[in-house]
Amino acid sequence: MNAARERAAEPTAAVAVDEVDAAYLESLIGYNARRAALAMIGAFLPGMAAFDLRPVDFSVLSLVLHNPGITSRQLCATLGILPPNLVGLVGTLERRGLVLRQPHPTDRRAMGLHLTAPGRALMRKAERTAAGIEAAVASRLSPAEARTLIRLLRKVYLDR
Amino acid sequence: MNAARERAAEPTAAVAVDEVDAAYLESLIGYNARRAALAMIGAFLPGMAAFDLRPVDFSVLSLVLHNPGITSRQLCATLGILPPNLVGLVGTLERRGLVLRQPHPTDRRAMGLHLTAPGRALMRKAERTAAGIEAAVASRLSPAEARTLIRLLRKVYLDR
DNA sequence: TATTGTTATACTCTATAACTATA
DNA sequence: TATAGTTATAGAGTATAACAATA
């Protein structure tokens, strides 16, 4: 039965897959981290859209709120954004009257970023909304599990 | 001293930021998950580049390896890829002689995907490399911590 | 000589509409 | 009427090179 054996060894037998086995991918930290990050972004998008903010806009405004006078260079380094891609982002936030740029006190090349009063008011609401979204997702975890998750994630991405 | 008080209340005082305070962002699961996912992808890229594979190519080939006969539709549903974006991806893998498409046994609209012998040989090496990359990153975690991390990440992104 | 911010530009990734063949 | 696969295309995100002003 050569033909039968060849068919048995044939790598391309025409069989249907009833249920997909993703066990291997699900054993990888990278796969799970990406899936979780995409789920969080998916949960974030509608809430932030109410303020006409993308997640990256929220991150930038949050850093400016908590670090008045922060420079573009510092924002780029903290968030992993390339300088050319931050220019338009900050420009849009400035045109919306949420941030303003002031001369840096010691470095005349740089500009310090600050929130305007409307910018601070918007961020107060946005951070409350963000906290609610986090709480909704974290409700699947106990408070201790949420703390553990953040601690382990930081171990993964922080150098040493 | 109205002028002094106004300056004190002035939201845009020209002060420099010596060290960026990202404590708020670092308290968010979403921010940490995204940072960790990007770190894992960054570790993955050079290793997979040796096989001329992107992370998404590796994911697709891995699912085809462990699910011979899987359809494009099933790949899209499992990986969150939109059908139009999978066409070129699979086409490239097919032109490279790594996968081949065979008629689906029961649905003449669909095509079952299979790895060729060179495709399986490549994936044996690629999965070994992936395991090494995972181990290198997971070396910052104890085996128990790595298991806990994956379990908590799955709680975040799995519905209920 | 190096760095900050900027412009222009290219490349990749992701998303939408519409079509065909078949279920 | 709905689904699998496909084409064309648009939009968002990310990348590099080069420049002026300043350190």
TrEMBL record, chains A, B:
SMART domains: HTH_MARR. One of its GO terms (molecular function) is DNA-binding transcription factor activity. GO terms for biological process: response to stress. Keywords: DNA-binding, Transcription, Transcription regulation. Residues 22-158 form the HTH marR-type domain. InterPro entries: HTH_MarR-typ, MarR/SlyA-like, Tscrpt_reg_MarR-type_CS, WH-like_DNA-bd_sf, WH_DNA-bd_sf. Pfam families: MarR_2. Gene3D superfamilies: Winged helix-like DNA-binding domain superfamily/Winged helix DNA-binding domain (1.10.10.10). This is MarR family transcriptional regulator. It comes from Ramlibacter lithotrophicus. The lineage of its organism: Bacteria, Pseudomonadati, Pseudomonadota, Betaproteobacteria, Burkholderiales.
